[in-house]
Amino acid sequence: MQAALFYFFAALTLVCGALIILNRNPINSAMFLVLSIASMAGLFVLLHAFFLAAVQVLVYAGAVMVLFLFVIMLLDLKEEDRRKFNLFGIITGVISVAAIAYISFAAIRSGSASVSRTASDIEGGTLPLGKLLFTNYLLPFEILSVLLLVAMVGVILLSKKDLK
After folding, report:
1. Is residue 12 part of a domain?
2. Are 86 and 160 contacting, i.e. CB atoms less than 8 angstroms apart?
3. Which end of the chain lies in a sparser environment, N or C, as judged by fewer CB atoms within 10 Å?
4. Closest CA to 42 of 16, 70, 77
C-alpha cells in the first residue's frame, strides 16, 4: 500500500509540476502549484516526517500561495500572449540547471553512505530535525532557498509587461 501511495503522490507531483509550466493562465498555474505542494506533503507523510508535511501545507500552500495569488490578482495578469523564445534566457537557464545538477550530484557522491541516526531518533522532534537539517543536509537546504528566490523572481517576471 505504501508503494502505491508513493507512486500516486510522485506522479501527482510531476503532473502538477508540468501543468504549472505549461498552463498559460497565472491563476491556474498557482492552483496547480498548491496541488503540487500538497502532494509533496503526502510524500513527507509517507516518510514519517509529519512536522515537515504540516509545515509544507501551512507555510507554502497557505501563506506563500496567498502571497503569490495576491500579487497576481493585484497586477491583474491576463492570459499570457505567446512570446518569442529568448535565446539568452534559454542558454542561461540550461547552464543554471546543469550547475545545480552538478552540485547536487557532487554533494551526493561526496556524502557518507552510512548514516548514524535511525528514523526513530529524529521522528517527531524539531530539535534533532534542525540539527540534522543544518549539519548533514545544509547544501540541499541552501539549494531550496535559492529555488525559493528563483520562484520570487519568477513572480516578478510574470508581472512584467512587455514594452514595445
Report:
1. yes
2. no
3. C
4. 16
